[in-house]
Amino acid sequence: MELRTALFLLGMIVIVIIAFVSFHRSQQKPYKLPRRLHRKNKGGNDEVDPLFEPRQGPLAYKQRDSNKASSAAKISETDEVRNEVDYKRDAEITPAPLIVEKESESPDTLELDLQPSEKKEDKGPHKEIEYVALLSGAESITRDQALGVYRQHEYTMEKENRLYGFNIANGFWRNLEHEEQGCQYRDICLTIQMADPHGPVSETELHRFSQMSLEVAEELDRPIVFSMDFDDALVAAEDLDSFRKEHDVILVVSIVARSENGLTMSAVHREAEKLDLYYSEDRIYHRIRKNADKQEDVLFSMANMFKPGELPKNDNDMHTGGLTLFMRLSAVSKPVDVYSDMIKTATSLASRLNGILVDQETHPVNESMTISQTKKILKLASSMESRGIPAGSELANRLF
Questions:
Q1: Burial level of 315, CB count in 10 A (0-12/13-18/19+)?
Q2: What CATH code would you report for 248-399?
Q3: Global model pTM greater than 0.85
Q4: How far apart are alpha carbons 195 and 121 in whole angstroms?
Q5: How far apart are CA 214 and CA 218, in angstroms?
Q6: Domain map of the chain by residue range?
Q7: DSSP class of 121
C-alpha cells in the first residue's frame, strides 16, 4: 500500500514538472505578426510588410516591438550612409571647362541609363511624402468594393489623396484608380500628400482626411492604423515643406550680346538648331531627352532674356540683348550631368553669337564658378537621394 502511494506521488510530481517546463517555453516563444500583416517574398519566407518597416527622420513609423525597431533603424542608417557615399562617388565629375567649340562640332548628347518602367515594382504609398492610413484585413476585397466605399466618403481636399491596394495576384501595392476590375486586394491604404508647391497640409485638411479614413474603415469593418500620430504628421508636413523650399533651386546662366545691336533672331535660331535644341510651341528652346516610357523630358531651356521671354521665328530681323538658359535641379535625374551639358551649350552659343557668358548677377562665368556650382548641385542632389526623394523621380515631381 505504501509502495503504491509512493509511486502515485512520484508520477504526480513528474506531471507537474513537465507542465511547468511546457508553460515556461510557451511564454518565451517569439511574437509573430498576424498573417494579414505579412507578405511572401520570392524565396517563400515571410517578411513584415514594407509599410511597417521603420524609417529614419520625422516620417518614421512607430513600431510595436522596440527591439526590432532599434535593430532595423541601425540597418537603415547604415544603408543611407552607404547610398550617400555611392551617390557622391558616381556623381562626382569635373565640370566642363569654358572653351570655345569649333564651328563643325556639336555638343555630345547626354547619355543616361534608363530602365523601362514595365519592370515589376511596388507603386504604392510613399511615406516620404504621404500620410498613410492602413486598413488591413484577413479577407480579400475587390477593386470596385474598395473604390465604391471610398468615393461615398471621399471629401474635397486641396492636397492630392490616393487609394492603394495590396494586389494578391502579383504581391505588389497598386493605385486602385489604375487597376483593372475584378482584382483582389488584401490590405488597402488611404493617403494624403503632406506638402506640395502650395505648402504643407493644413491641420483642418489633415483632420478631414483622418475622419474620412475612419469612416471608410468602419464601412469596410477593418482595423485602421495611421502611419504616425496626428500631431507628428503636422510636424512632418512642415519639415517636408522646408525641405522642398531648400531644394527647389533654379540654375541660371545667360548670354549677353557684346554689340550694342544685340543678337539677331536669325542667328539665334540657326545656332540653337545646330546644337540640337528643340523649338517648342511656347516659342522657346529646350534640351529634350526621351525617358524609359518614350516620353520627352525637358532637361533645360533657353529663352529671351527680356519679357515675355519668347524667341519668335516670324521676325528674323528682330534683335535681343541676351539669352537665358535655365534648369530646375529637382526636375532632372543626374542634375550634375545636366548642368554640365547646359554650361557646354551656353559656352558654345556665346562663342558663336559673339556674346559674354554671365551668371544671375551678370558676373562673367569662369571655371572656378562652375566648379563651385557643381559642388552645390552635388550636395543638394545627395541630400534628396538620402531623403528618399531623388531628383527627377516621380516623388520629386509630386513634391516640387
A1: exposed
A2: 3.30.1400.10
A3: no
A4: 24
A5: 6
A6: 49-88+120-244, 248-399
A7: -
